[in-house]
Design goal:
five-stranded mixed sheet, Beta Polymerase, domain 2, alpha+beta, about 100 residues
């Protein structure tokens, strides 16, 4: 079974193909990331979206391709800067992880 990192990359690639305006995708992590029930979480920065704050959208698992639930938060570039500055908080216990798109070598 693929791990959450592999699923996060697969989802990021799929979302980028569907929504080419996405400028960046960052994996979000939580303290219980190793728990199977903890969703794969993506923060998508999209200049074409409307600013709406932090609004997580949850998806159920879709085995066998996506064996974990997932959550997507889509924000504007200015909202992303507020997240980085700490003035727009992520859900409790969530933090920024690796940048999945664009790929960082």
């Amino acid at each position: 079974m693929p791990d959450k990192s592999e699923i996060a990359r697969m989802l990021a690639d799929a979302h980028r193909k569907v929504e080419p305006a996405i400028s960046r995708i960052i994996r979000l992590l939580a303290d219980r990331e190793q728990d199977a029930g903890e969703p794969v979480k993506l923060l998508e920065i999209n200049p074409d979206t409307s600013p709406s704050g932090i609004f997580p959208i949850a998806f159920s698992a879709d085995p066998p391709c996506v064996p974990f639930p997932s959550v997507v938060i889509e924000v504007t570039e200015s909202e992303f800067e507020k997240i980085r500055a700490g003035s727009l908080p992520l859900p409790d216990g969530w933090r920024l992880g690796d940048t999945l798109y664009p790929n960082v070598a």
